[in-house]
Write a structure and sequence with these properties.
mainly beta; single chain
């Protein structure tokens, strides 16, 4: 059974940091590109960050460049999103996504709220 389980969300003040984790099971994690998406209330889901199978190439949305870092640990079947200098506009549900050819898997999401 394929599972992607996110954790690490919560309430943080502006300027604070959070580290999201996504643990995968039920598929060959090391062969999948991994992404983090987010969806704020009333908005479309947007791609935040991507990482290739080796962890050697990453891409970021312009809105998070320089503040967020995506990484992966293939032996642990885990992808991370380190989020620094958080802003209220980063408030959203964050989703982990795995992609290989036509296969796409999603996690259930973790809520991140940035507020004073």
């Amino acid at each position: 059974q394929v599972r992607l389980v996110e954790s690490g969300g919560g309430l943080v003040q502006p300027g604070g940091s959070l580290r999201l984790s996504c643990v995968a099971s039920g598929f060959t994690f090391r062969t999948y590109g991994m992404n983090w998406y987010r969806q704020a209330p009333g908005k479309e889901r947007e791609l935040v960050a991507s990482i290739n199978v080796f962890g050697s190439s990453t891409n970021y949305a312009d809105s998070v460049k320089g503040r967020f870092t995506i990484s992966r640990d293939n032996p642990k079947n885990t992808v991370y999103l380190q989020m620094n200098s958080l802003k209220p506009e980063d408030t959203a549900v964050y989703y982990c996504n795995a992609v290989f050819a036509s296969s796409r898997y999603w996690g259930q999401g973790t809520q991140v709220t940035v507020s004073s």
